[in-house]
Amino acid sequence: MTVTPFRIGTRGSPLALAQAYETRDNLIEAFPDMGSDGAIEIVVIKTTGDKIQDRALMDIGGKGLFTKEIDDAMLDGDIDIAVHSMKDVPTWMPDGIHLPCMLKRQDVRDAFISSKAESLWDLPEGAVVGSASLRRQSQILARRPDLKVVTFRGTVQTRLKKLEAGEVDGTMLAAAGLKRLGMEQHITQTLDAEDFIPAVGQGAIGITCMIDSVRANDALAALNHEQTMIRVTAERAFLAVLDGSCRTPIAAHAWYDGDTALRFHGLVAKPDGSEVHDVTRQGPANIVAAESMGRDAGFELKGQIGPDFLVTADHADSPTTAPNK
Q1: CATH architecture assigned to 110-190
Q2: Which of 57, 96, 216, 222 sits at 20 to 30 Å (Cα–Cα) from 113?
Q3: 135 touches 142 (CB < 8 A)
Q4: Rounded to two decimals, what is the model's pTM?
Q5: Smallest Cα–Cα separation from 181: which of 146, 156, 212?
Q6: Would residue 88 show up in a list of annotated catalytic residues for this protein?
Q7: What CA–CA distances, in Å, run from 98 to 20, 68, 75, 93, 102?
Q8: What secondary structure does DSSP assign to 255-318, as a single string?
């Protein structure tokens, strides 16, 4: 009897594949029968964000750049589930697709990498930092306006090669990605998440599937890490209220304070770091309260900064987390 393989859709970068393999291993642990030959198939899908590497995300649309083609494959029935970095997942899902599962969150912090300084803040005046993230740029320039931040895209390996070639004096990457790739030895400094607020969903792996797929939903129910889901729900609710786009630096971090309390810190800034506004919250750690907390924090900041502060992408009709990585 032929078994229909359980198909995992993913981007093809080394980090994306590492996350897909982590998902596969979790499935096999939960369902030992999935460990047999051919029971699981990993389907690599190239996305727009992967195809265009020479321009900043905000210049190529910034909306679902790392998810659209994967969503299309799911809607066409070519994959059963899709594995994403949560900071790449738009706050609104295409009709028919939902996000029922997140794996246990890795390190949320940003990592600074350089051979020229022991920390980001020790770089000499006028030094150049490579980053594709306006969120990182705004927080760097808010404290060190003398530094220069330039667009720096590509896989983790590509960025490290550019750094080694001397194209920049330092770069910023998510600590979680480096750890998942076994490359944490490259980290020069790991920045405290309270001092340098991460991207929404940073360090978390999200897994989507069709709402009506019993097979996929049953499998993902066994993998979901509730604490991660609660934390990221608060962060994504904050982003959704602010209607964040590729031209708006937004950061958010929710974390557990003990076993039953959740704390939240959100930020919105101008890209040049000239204005930074933040907000904090605390409350019970459950899904309903977390979403309410994030939304309430978002509305507070939105009221403080006024309608002209947030810059939306041209013709944007749905918010996305991707550009604020």
Answers
A1: 3-Layer(aba) Sandwich (3.40)
A2: 57
A3: no
A4: 0.89
A5: 156
A6: yes
A7: 18, 14, 11, 6, 12
A8: EEETTTEEEEEEEEE-TTSS-EEEEEEEEE-SHHHHHHHHHHHHHHHHHHH-TTT--PPTT--S
Q: Which candidate, 30, 28, 52, 50, places its Cα nearest to that of 40?
A: 28
- Nearest-angstrom CA–CA distance, 99 and 79: 15
Structure tokens at 299: 């509305």
* Spatial distance between the Cα atoms of 139 and 324, rounded to a whole number of angstroms: 12
For residue range 27-50, list pLDDT tens digits in order: 999 999 999 999 999 999 987 665
Q: To the nearest whole number, what is the mean pLDDT of the chain?
A: 90
Residue 110: is its pLDDT beyond 90?
yes
Q: What is the DSSP letter of 38?
A: T
138 neighbors 271 (Cβ within 8 angstroms): yes
Residue 321 has pLDDT above 80, yes or no: no
Rounded CA separation 133/130 (Å): 9
Banded model confidence at residue 322, pLDDT cuts 50, 70, 90? very low
User: Nearest 5°: phi and psi at 7?
Assistant: -100, 125
Inter-axis angle of helices 156-164 and 14-30, to 10 degrees?
A: 140
> Strand 128-130 relative to strand 170-174: parallel, antiparallel, unpaired?
parallel
pLDDT tens for each residue of 217-240? 999 999 999 999 999 999 999 999
DSSP at 320: -
Q: Determine the Cα–Cα distance for residues 105 and 203; give it in Å rounded to an integer.
A: 6
Q: Is 115 helix (H, G, I), strand (E, B) or coil?
A: coil
Which position among 71, 88, 107, 110 bears the catalytic label? 88
Q: Domain residues of the chain, as ranges?
A: 110-190
- Distance CA(256)–CA(231), nearest Å, equals 8
Per the DSSP assignment, residues forming a β-bridge with 255 are: 263
Q: Are strands 148-150 and 128-130 parallel, antiparallel or unpaired?
A: parallel
Length of the chain: 325
